[in-house]
């Protein structure tokens, strides 16, 4: 089985269990293929936790869920050195970050020290405890969730950490037809659990994912499309070039990391669509998720009801498509 066939079978496996959230499934796979991390924002009960759990079930990997709370400590993520009284030595006990797929549930409920510990793992793919640095697995992806409803007792993520996320995906409620299928699926799963039926899943290897990442990097992007991609990112920093009405909207634009993320994600989007070239539609489809958390709007824009999505929408409409 080729790498593309393996990833498409993985996608089908996830879509079988996650109904009505096609965008979340696609973005999870794109993050996996682009070797990045995902921040997902949505109301409770929208299968955010289940999505990455089902994804991990289809891969030869291990998964760990971390519930972020105000009393969480950095050592609860990284691990700590444990004293052994029998020989007077210390041994390092690995924390949950030493797994392949990590769910950081309600990440904004943990204080800054915990978020900084996660930042090193996401950015450097390593953990430092005392004077020793430990590498994390080669296949390592964090999916963090945020609940947009309750903001009491939360610690907003700093811009430096937000920029480390490849994409910020905002999901909503499923349609009525999809919710009816969710009810049917829930009954089937409850019946299977009651009957203790073990379902065997054909898991794909980590090597298949690494091979797929190489193929994604080989997807062709024309020079004029690369220029278009860069112009979109540059427009977030200097929107006045595309209209006087946009001049005061942006306080800070997207960083060069946004250009890299948009490039990787657009290629992955095209590859999942079984094409060997990137089109403008690939860039535009992924632009919202890549740029949403990387632009900081001015107070005037927020007062006028401008959102990051509406700002990006205006830029896509005004930047010339090759």
Q: Secondary-structure blueprint of this entry?
A:
Elements: H1 3-17, H2 22-33, E1 38-41, H3 48-57, E2 63-67, H4 75-78, E3 79-84, E4 89-94, E5 101-105, H5 112-124, E6 126-129, E7 132-135, E8 141-146, H6 159-162, E9 167-170, H7 176-194, H8 206-217, H9 223-237, E10 250-252, H10 256-272, H11 280-291, E11 296-297, H12 299-303, H13 308-318
Parallel strand pairs: 1-8, 1-9, 2-5, 5-8
Antiparallel strand pairs: 3-4, 6-7, 10-11
Helix pairs in contact: 1-2, 1-8, 2-10, 8-10, 9-10, 10-11, 11-13
Quick structural overview:
The chain is of the alpha/beta class and 322 residues long.
Give structural notes.
By secondary structure, the chain is of the alpha/beta class. The protein folds into two domains: about 20-195, P-loop containing nucleotide triphosphate hydrolases (Rossmann fold, 3-Layer(aba) Sandwich); about 220-320, Helicase, Ruva Protein, domain 3, CATH 1.10.8. The protein has helices at about 5-15, 20-35, 50-55, 75-80, 110-125, 160, 175-195, 205-215, 225-235, 255-270, 280-290, 300-305, 310-320, and strands at about 40, 65, 80-85, 90-95, 100-105, 125-130, 130-135, 140-145, 165-170, 250, 295. The strands form four sheets. Strands 2-5-8-1-9 form a five-stranded parallel sheet. Strands 3-4 form a two-stranded antiparallel sheet. The protein has a two-stranded antiparallel ribbon with strand order 6-7.
How would you describe this structure in keywords?
46% helix, single chain, two-stranded antiparallel sheet, 322 residues, 13 helices, Rossmann fold, alpha/beta, Helicase, Ruva Protein, domain 3, globular
């Amino acid at each position: 089985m080729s790498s593309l066939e393996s990833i498409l079978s993985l996608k089908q496996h996830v879509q079988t269990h996650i109904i009505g959230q096609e965008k979340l499934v696609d973005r999870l796979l794109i993050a996996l293929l682009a070797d990045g991390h995902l921040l997902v924002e949505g109301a409770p009960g929208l299968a955010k936790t289940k999505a990455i759990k089902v994804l991990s079930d289809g891969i030869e990997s291990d998964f760990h869920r971390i519930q972020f709370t105000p009393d969480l400590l950095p050592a609860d993520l990284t691990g700590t050195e444990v004293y052994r009284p029998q020989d007077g030595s210390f041994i390092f006990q690995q924390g949950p970050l030493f797994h392949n797929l990590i769910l950081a549930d309600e990440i904004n409920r943990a204080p800054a020290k915990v978020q900084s510990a996660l930042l090193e793992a996401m950015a450097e793919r390593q953990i430092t405890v005392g004077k020793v640095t430990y590498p994390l697995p080669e296949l390592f992806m964090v999916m963090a969730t945020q609940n947009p409803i309750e903001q009491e007792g939360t610690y907003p993520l700093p811009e430096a950490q937000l920029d480390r996320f490849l994409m910020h995906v905002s999901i909503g409620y499923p349609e009525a037809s999809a919710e009816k299928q969710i009810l049917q699926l829930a009954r089937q799963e409850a019946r299977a659990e009651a009957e203790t039926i073990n379902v065997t899943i054909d898991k794909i290897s980590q090597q298949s994912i690494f091979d797929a990442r190489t193929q994604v990097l080989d997807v062709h992007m024309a020079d004029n499309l690369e220029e278009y991609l860069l112009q979109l990112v540059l427009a977030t920093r200097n929107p006045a070039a595309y209209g006087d009405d946009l001049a005061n909207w942006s306080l800070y634009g997207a960083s060069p990391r946004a250009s890299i993320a948009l490039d990787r994600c657009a290629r992955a989007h095209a590859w999942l669509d079984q094409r060997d070239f990137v089109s403008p539609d690939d860039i535009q489809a992924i632009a919202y998720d890549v740029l949403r958390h990387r632009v900081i709007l001015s107070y005037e824009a927020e007062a006028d009801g401008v959102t990051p999505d509406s700002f990006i929408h205006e830029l896509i409409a005004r930047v010339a498509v090759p």
